[in-house]
Amino acid sequence: MELDIKGKIEELVKKITTDKGLQADFQKDPIKTVEKLIGIDLPDDQIKSIVAGIKAKIGADKFSGLADGLNSLFGKK
């Protein structure tokens, strides 16, 4: 069974960013949280790659939101 890593990252980012409990769990123990959410026992390197992808995506989303906020603060669109 092949796992669509990119698709799984997108799915998990949506779940984590919309659930405060999952956000807290992910911040405390991202590997354990991802393992629980996917429900599949994967090798550590695959889990770590998914965690890194989620962190990158969440960070990019936060940066994008921050940039939008700064633009609106300074009257730019």
What this model shows, in words?
The mean pLDDT is 80. Helix 2 crosses helix 3. The chain is mostly helical and 77 residues long. The longest helix is centred in the C-terminal third of the chain and has 30 residues, at 44-73. It has a domain at 1-7 and 45-71. It has helices at residues 5-17, 20-28, 30-38, 44-73. The protein is built from four helices and no strands.
Could you list some keywords that capture this structure?
mainly alpha; 77 residues; globular; 79% helix; 0% strand; single chain
Strand and helix map with partners:
Elements: H1 5-17, H2 20-28, H3 30-38, H4 44-73
**Could you list the spans in which at least 5 consecutive residues all have pLDDT below 50?**
none
Distance between the termini: 45 Å
Q: Kindly state the number of beta strands.
A: 0
Elements, N to C (H/E): HHHH
- Indicate the overall shape: globular
Question: Could you tell me the strand content as a percent range?
Answer: under 5%
Structural class per helix/strand content? mainly alpha
Q: Please summarize the sheet with the most strands.
A: none
Summarize the structure.
The protein has 77 residues and is mainly alpha-helical.
